[in-house]
């Protein structure tokens, strides 16, 4: 195992172990507090141990599902706190079902789970603050060096300027090589003029380099293949700039893609008819269940539109959208704009759009306007998770101006997507380019676990009123 991978695994393992101990202690402390305050009856050791064990397992499984143990978790402290709340809430729900409805014999006290959950949230938030912000665990970041200081390398300087963008690595510097476009290259980062020859190995050892990122503008005749081969054999990771950006930022740098990278890279799985049928069944079932719970919100939308614009005002708005394999379908939404919003033709929706009505702002903020699209899910036009479908008028233009844009239509469009979580607003060609980077990442890495992560984070977006 390379030094970089070893440190990543070590970080994750230490986090899991430390937090398992903290969760178990909180569960035990809650029982002790209840004994002192409400004088509950003593609990058998077996029942107590079973409760503690289940709480630890379910909390950490939920934390794993929301990415809290990802070695490359790119999140602010506020985002980490929200994920902790979500994971503890999931564990609380599962424990309530188990101890309240199924195995009532292991229930301790009605106040036990709420108190335990509160203690866990407080303790984990405090622990993450000191471990992430102050380095309490003493774990350093992966140290990397970039070969190349030209235009391709500059994407790191342009896209990853903030500390939060570099949480998983420490950038030692950039090594310029012949063929780099220095005019459009690195401007403000550390430039290291070190020869990539037999002495390069010593430089890597002295600086404890764990990973080398290849970001040169011209490879043929400029890359020292023998030296890099030797470094890889000795356990130092060698990664292409495209793979590095994909891993660290959760997006694919569309403007830097070359065909051989797509051909040889992992992902972009072939279609499986059994999996597709199963996905449709799950999506249709979820759509039906959500309809049962959200009809009061839909009624609120109807009343709101009628109150603001009169009972004769149209409730729904429909548009043609591009779906799977470029097929056109009709999408339905609660109308959030004025009826004359597109009297001059199709226009990009913008932030603080003056065409949006007062009730429309509320519907958009909490995604209520999207609820009629459950019908599209039931019909099979859409899924819950996938790239957001775009209008044909815009797609024709985007295909002409953005490379690989049509590849996003290789999967079924969705109500929520990876791009919406990471780049939540798009009102221009440039914004569409940025969103495509995340859409292609989803197309490449689509999986049930990624869908669950997107679904959980989308619920967070809706609850905190971040919808667009």
UniProtKB/TrEMBL annotation:
Pfam families: Bac_transf
UniProt KW Membrane keyword: yes
Domain called Bacterial sugar transferase: residue spans: 283-463
Top-level taxon of origin: Bacteria
Keywords from the named record: Membrane, Transferase, Transmembrane, Transmembrane helix
Transferase among keywords: yes
Annotated TM spans: 12-34, 46-69, 81-106, 112-131, 284-307
Membrane topology: Multi-pass membrane protein
Cell compartments where the protein resides: Membrane
Family: Belongs to the bacterial sugar transferase family.
Name this protein carries in UniProt: TIGR03013 family XrtA/PEP-CTERM system glycosyltransferase
Organism: Pseudobowmanella zhangzhouensis
